[in-house]
Amino acid sequence: MVVAYFVALVVGIGALYWLVLKNSAEKIAKQYVALADSYGLELNQPEPVMAGFIRPEPSVYGKIKEREISISVPGKGLQNTRQIETVLKLEITDNKFAAQFTGAGLLGSFRQRDSRGMERWKSGNESFDHAVDARTNDGGVLGRLLEGDLQSDIISVLKKGKGSIYIGSGVMAYAELGLIASDACRERFEAVLQLLLRLADALDAP
Length: 206
Hints:
- The structure is a single chain.
- By secondary structure, this protein is α+β, with helices and mostly antiparallel strands.
- It has one domain.
- The protein has 6 helices and 9 strands, in the order H-E-E-E-E-E-H-E-H-E-H-H-E-E-H.
- The chain has a 9-stranded antiparallel beta sheet with strand order 1-2-3-4-9-8-5-7-6.
- A hairpin with a 2-residue loop joins strand 2 and strand 3.
- The longest helix is centred in the first third of the chain and has 38 residues.
């Protein structure tokens, strides 16, 4: 009797866990379908494995304004941890310029990637310098890049998503902890995409 009860309990917990995974995966898939449809991107939706207990995250890729783009979840956690992040990548033609934007303060410093060869850059705009930790290998280029309202847009993006923007090696990227599982999160990534497109056009302008 005890064994039967234990088996039933294990089966019940397993079934509940399976349903939670399925529901979560469906929410995420719905957002990626919306992204693919909105921007004419290819959708990659891996099949579940291990009877549905392992459900790899989907991804999208393609071109927007002749620039290659992808939104995906790296196979390993952030900086080899268990933290999962979603990364939006956009192709740029400049291979020399490098920069990073994270939130200022202690938490922002944890999101810094390989910043060797980069120095902290100050814009002279108190609001921007207080909110954003900007680092670059070319302060002159960055100053030209962030003319107009781009500074306030970067502040808004980093504040809303607690993410980070990275530029280097022909790629402009935005990384945010977590998965795209809601309309609000998808819309935030769409706003980031428009920001990166503006930054890319400004950077690649003759």
